[in-house]
Amino acid sequence: PITAKVNDRGHLEIGACDVTELVKQFGSPLYIMDEHSIRTACSQYRDGLKDHYQGESLVIYASKALNCLALCALVNSEGLGIDVASGGELYTALQAGVDPEKIYFHGNNKSVAELEQAIECGCTIVADNWLELKTLASFNANHAPKVMLRITPGIECHTHEYIRTGHLDSKFGFDPNQVPEVLDFLTKTSNLDFVGVHAHIGSQIFERQPHQDLAGVLVKWLKAAQELGLPARELNVGGGLGIRYTEADDPPSITEWTSAVAKAVTMACEQLQVSLPKLICEPGRSLVGNTGITAYTVGARKEVPEIRTYIAVDGGMSDNARPITYQAEYRSMLGNKMSETATETVTVAGKHCESGDILIQSASLPKTVSGDTLVITSTGAYGYSMASNYNRLLRPGMVLVYKGTADMMVERETYEDLIAQDKFPERLKTVDN
Ligand code: LLP
User: Fold this and answer.
1) Are 345 and 316 in contact (CB under 8 A)?
2) pLDDT grade, residue 140 (50/70/90)?
3) What's the domain range around 299?
4) Which residues are catalytic?
């Protein structure tokens, strides 16, 4: 999906920008996001629902995958809404000019301050548990907050256990057993505007069946709510469509996924005689994952005779926590040697003080020397958003490329940024030995 090509210098170009030149200009490591492919993914989702669903539909971008002002604004300009999972993500979306009508606020432990922030702006709050629901009802806000109910659907899917959320012992959402009581509560609570039901079953999912099953479960809950006279009118199937990180991954396309979901919801509504709700889905990874790369500079090399060769790059688990957290696999290439054939297999290591800081266990690359540009692909989702300052490394900058132009989206951090929040107690400033 990314708009990539090799130029006549044998360099990788993204969005008609030479990646090796970008690193020289903006520093290394560097996150590079391709505007054209983000817009393409947005329109595939948007049109995918529109083309296969007769009712109203809305795609909301799960901004936990990558949240910053420019990206919120970009996605918003494509007509998508935004899913936020904290006061910070909400703040960023609002600052980017996103209409609160299209913002949905998630989270299993929203603070009172976050709930107030959400009510004040008028976004929809996806209520996760009793405490939250009762807190919302007790605010007695002058306009009834829009509330959606997150239900644990009890649907299993095949993905890493850390990112599975649909099974019954997940920490998210109301247990199905609690739902009748919750609906009853909502019928008696006039100061909440109950808009509909939501579930999210997990992430990096390659099967279509779990989301199709989910559609049936959600329509049932919607009907139950409507039968009690509640104005439930929205059905949100969450996100979760997987992407291709390596050749081994074979996810459905966005278009295949949206049509499967739209059809499943339509069918369930026909069967249960429910009028078509506003259909919402909230993809994160599949909107931005394949649209971004990380460019690093190669440094030290270590050959362990007969075992392996390490090449080290100038970043690692602080800019991409996924390999160490989920054993996630990635592909790489040498951005400045695209015309050379692979001659060696190396382990790509980060620069952190931690043996597990390995970005790729086994990468086939042309002969690599210090100074080469190593590109890891498909890092657009959950890379920057999960980045840290471990070992006080500076978080990389991020640029948005389009038709030969590169614009800064996130400035590279500086050492001053690192100590900006540090406090230096007076009594520690003079040291008596
Ligand atoms: N909606 C809700 C309520 C979610 O919790 C999530 C992801 C999404 C939507 C978007 O899911 P996606 O389309 O991106 O699969 N850090 C992990 C992924 C955690 C996903 C958490 N929730 C990773 O790097 O693989």
Assistant:
1) no
2) confident
3) 4-33+293-419
4) 353
